[in-house]
């Protein structure tokens, strides 16, 4: 495996070139320190997030104990959003703008609001399904517990497989119905029926500009609230059912239990919290300079020509070059993350988020390596490549919104997302994904779109880089 | 009939054009198996361009290169080892690592590679620098490492592009002895480009001189010196200098004499292969009744041949 030898060579050269390594790691670190010092200390005041809620929920009917109740969970959820406050504060988390959909879209475009929350028509039905599912699970598990507790040997010393037919209220032993009297089943409610769980999925949409920090913060908080809301409904239903299992008629009539609690992401955000992931991406973009310089150096010093006459294939060189730089990308993400924390970065999540951030960093690093290949393909010397790489990487870091929010430049909608001109650059998605994961504590599910876009754009860039570099540098000269 | 098996490399009408500039103009060469083939020419003559085409690094505009009868594009990589003119080494790797990397690229088996590295470092007097970073070696050591990297895969053909440029006399001698042993003991075919005429003369079995992209001459060094240039110069000092004029006339009338002049009281005779003509000259002078006090001979050198063919003008 020749690429391993090339990769080993690259690692050894990188580690032994202490000045170069220091430049790669210390330069972005210095950036992080400066930005952290400049922007990290200025705690922003808590202010409500401006949002619009469009509630299309058509309500549902809850049945129990021969009574019905009309329930609109959409209204309930909207009310909850209105009432929520910052932790240990009297300031509300959201200010809800009561506007039409058309007006909400305009306000979103003008950034008068940070997002639109669209509650679907079947929201209440979905919540009813959540309750029914919880009740059904709870009851069946209780029956299971009762059976385990039965004194089988005390009846006729028969052992075997027991099961209980809920619909017919009959106990079976090895497939034959048995007399349940001996088992103390007299108290079991003969008229009890398990609730039917409907197969309903409601999609609550949080619409906004994914490249805008205001949206990032609001959507993160809203996602947390929605998850907590569903959990609260579930836990209330469970609590009521398990508490009164033997008296079915006492199943509760108030399924929605509301409690306002502080959640992750409601602390005061600083400008530095927005910038820290951007600085990590800036460092990843600086890999362009290193990769382009290294490869152009191989051309300039004749070592590439020496390798070209061997049995080495393009794949060996390019993949072998990619490995050490990907390792540097990992080191950069990790070190800069630690420096950011030391400078007061408010990060969310746990070890999974760090692992996810490193994975995102690797993909972002590969994007930079690919761009480095392109730069090296058109550079005349190592110095030229480094200058050209710097000329590309620095403006690019601003273009992808690493440091500051960008003005809107919408191209259209793609995959249910607003696609902006900057979105053709993989690092835009790297910045968005890192912010979501580290600053807002989002999980993999929340950054699937950005990761997918990163992978697609990186593959395109890598293929372009490989083609250009191979054509200009790896074939016999014309 | 020519024995084609005796030739390892053959160039057929090899031509390279860059826009309107003709770098190599229809080069036809045949290099014999096991010989040291000297490739001479002034800067810009087309030597390096020709060599790059011969090893497959540059595509010819016309013509082609055959390695053992096979077109260069389809020849298995590893048959040729190239020691470039510049020091092409990785300064951040040790001597051992530099050679091992190239060995890996040629897919040399691990055990063979390990032994090969040891042997090469020993032969090129670099054993004590095995673990030294290449960037910390002296110029001569770097050049020897440069050569070792061209040989680790045991190629049949070795291309040495000015291998001793910038070397001190001791290092040059080590290198020359090693090149000689490569050819004579290990049977390698060696293509050697150099600006050092002494090097070409000492090491080459045959020499090709090219200029302006064209092959000017191809022969053994001895033949070239006998046929091309200004010839050998014989300096004769007579016991009676008053007879110089008569001796000059006599010499001019002799066959195979290129030029005769009286310089500082001595008769200077210029002729090709003067050594074989010298007894006849001495006999003729003595038959005139003139005795000779002293004679000296300065042989025609490869440098004379080179200058004669390529001119004295500076090139870049």
**Any idea what the shape of chain B is?**
elongated
Largest interface: A-B, 23 and 28 residues
Number of helices of chain A: 14
CATH class of the domain at 230-299 in chain B: Alpha Beta
Q: How much helicity do the residues of chain B have?
A: 25-40%
Strand order of the largest sheet of chain A: 4-1-5-9
Sum up the structure in keywords.
heterodimer; A: 478 residues; alpha+beta; D-Maltodextrin-Binding Protein, domain 2; 4-stranded mixed beta sheet; 3-stranded antiparallel beta sheet; 11 strands; 10% strand; B: 316 residues; alpha/beta; Alpha-Beta Plaits; 10 helices; 14 strands
How is this structure best described in words?
The complex is a heterodimer of chains A (478) and B (316). Chain A has 14 helices and 11 strands. By secondary structure, chain A is α+β, with helices and mostly antiparallel strands. Chain A has 3 domains: 2-42 and 269-474, no CATH class; 49-130 and 198-250, D-Maltodextrin-Binding Protein, domain 2 (3-Layer(aba) Sandwich); 137-183, no CATH class. A 4-stranded mixed sheet of chain A has the order 4-1-5-9, with helices on both faces. In chain A, strands 6-7-8 form a 3-stranded antiparallel sheet, with no helix packed on it. In chain A, strand 10 and strand 11 form a beta hairpin. Chain B has 316 residues and is α/β, with parallel strands linked by helices. In chain B, helix 2 crosses helix 3 and helix 2 packs parallel to helix 4. The interface between A and B is medium-sized, with 23 and 28 residues.
Short characterization:
The complex is a heterodimer of chains A (478) and B (316). Chain A is of the alpha+beta class and 478 residues long. Chain A is built from 14 helices and eleven strands.
């Amino acid at each position: 495996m020749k690429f391993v030898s090339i990769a080993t060579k690259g690692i050894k050269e990188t580690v032994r070139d202490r000045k170069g390594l220091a430049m790669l790691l210390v330069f972005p670190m210095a950036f992080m320190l400066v930005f952290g010092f400049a922007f990290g200390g200025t705690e922003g005041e808590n202010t409500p997030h401006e949002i619009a809620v469009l509630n299309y929920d058509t309500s549902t009917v809850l049945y129990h104990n021969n009574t019905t109740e009309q329930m609109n969970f959409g209204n309930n959820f909207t009310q909850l959003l209105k009432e929520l406050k910052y932790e240990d504060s009297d300031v509300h988390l959201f200010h809800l703008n009561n506007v039409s959909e058309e007006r909400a879209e305009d306000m979103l475009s003008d950034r008068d609001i940070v997002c639109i929350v669209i509650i679907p028509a079947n929201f209440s039905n979905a919540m009813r399904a959540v309750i029914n599912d919880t009740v059904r699970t709870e009851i069946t598990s209780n029956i299971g517990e009762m059976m385990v507790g039965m004194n089988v040997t005390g009846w006729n010393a028969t052992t075997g497989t027991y099961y209980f037919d809920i619909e017919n209220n009959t106990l079976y032993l090895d497939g034959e119905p048995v007399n349940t009297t001996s088992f103390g089943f007299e108290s079991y409610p003969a008229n009890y029926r398990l609730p039917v769980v409907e197969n309903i999925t409601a999609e609550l949409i949080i619409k906004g500009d994914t490249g805008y920090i205001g949206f990032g913060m609001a959507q993160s908080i809203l996602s947390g609230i929605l998850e907590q809301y569903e959990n609260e409904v579930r836990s209330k239903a469970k609590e009521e059912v398990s508490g009164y299992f033997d008296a079915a008629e006492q199943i509760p009539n108030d399924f929605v239990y509301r409690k306002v609690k502080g959640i992750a992401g409601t602390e005061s955000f600083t400008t530095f919290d927005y910038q820290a992931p951007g600085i990590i991406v800036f460092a990843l973009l600086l890999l362009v300079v290193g990769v382009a310089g290294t490869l152009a150096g191989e051309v300039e010093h004749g070592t590439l020509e020496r390798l070209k006459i061997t049995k080495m294939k393009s794949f060996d060189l390019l993949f072998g070059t990619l490995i050490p730089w990907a390792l540097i990308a990992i080191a950069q993400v990790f070190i800069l993350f630690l420096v950011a924390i030391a400078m007061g970065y408010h990060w969310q999540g746990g070890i999974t988020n760090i692992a996810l951030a490193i994975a995102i960093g690797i993909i972002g690093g590969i994007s930079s390596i690919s761009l480095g290949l392109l730069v090296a393909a058109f550079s005349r010397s190592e110095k030229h490549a480094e200058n050209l790489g710097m000329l590309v990487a620095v403006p690019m870091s601003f273009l992808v919104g690493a440091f500051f929010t960008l003005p809107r430049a919408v191209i259209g909608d793609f995959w249910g997302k607003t696609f902006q001109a900057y979105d053709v650059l993989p690092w835009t998605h790297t910045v968005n994904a890192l912010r979501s994961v580290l600053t807002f504590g989002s999980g993999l599910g929340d950054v699937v779109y950005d990761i997918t876009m990163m992978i697609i754009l990186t593959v395109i860039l890598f293929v372009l880089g490989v083609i250009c570099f191979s054509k200009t540098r790896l074939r016999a000269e014309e | 009939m020519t024995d084609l098996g005796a030739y390892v490399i053959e160039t057929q009408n090899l031509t390279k054009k860059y826009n309107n500039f003709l770098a190599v103009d229809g080069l036809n060469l045949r290099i014999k198996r096991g010989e040291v083939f000297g490739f001479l020419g002034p800067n810009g003559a087309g030597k390096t361009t020709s060599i790059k085409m011969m090893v497959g690094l540059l595509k010819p505009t016309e013509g082609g290169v055959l390695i053992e009868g096979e077109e260069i594009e389809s020849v298995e990589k590893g048959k040729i080892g190239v020691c470039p003119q510049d020091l092409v080494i990785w300064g951040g790797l040790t001597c051992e690592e530099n050679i091992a990397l190239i060995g890996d690229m040629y897919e040399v088996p691990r055990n063979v590679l390990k032994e090969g590295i040891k042997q090469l470092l020993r032969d090129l007097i670099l054993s004590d620098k095995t673990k030294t970073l290449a960037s910390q070696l002296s110029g001569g050591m770097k050049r020897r490492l440069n050569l070792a990297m061209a040989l680790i895969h045991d190629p049949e053909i070795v291309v040495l592009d000015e291998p001793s440029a910038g070397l001190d006399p001791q290092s040059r001698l080590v290198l020359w002895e090693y090149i000689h042993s490569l050819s004579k003991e290990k049977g390698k075919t060696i293509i050697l480009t150099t600006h050092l005429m002494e090097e070409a003369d000492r090491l080459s079995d045959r020499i090709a001189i090219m200029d302006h992209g064209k092959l000017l001459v191809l022969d053994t060094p001895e033949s070239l010196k006998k046929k091309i240039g200004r010839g050998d110069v014989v300096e004769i000092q007579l016991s009676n200098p008053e007879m110089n004029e008569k001796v000059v006339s006599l010499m001019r009338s002799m066959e195979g004499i290129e030029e005769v002049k009286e310089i500082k009281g001595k008769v200077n005779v210029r002729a090709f292969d003067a050594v074989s003509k010298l007894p006849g000259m001495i006999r003729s002078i003595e038959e005139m009744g003139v005795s000779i006090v002293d004679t000296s001979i300065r042989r025609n050198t490869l440098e004379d041949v080179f200058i004669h063919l390529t001119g004295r003008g500076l090139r870049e």
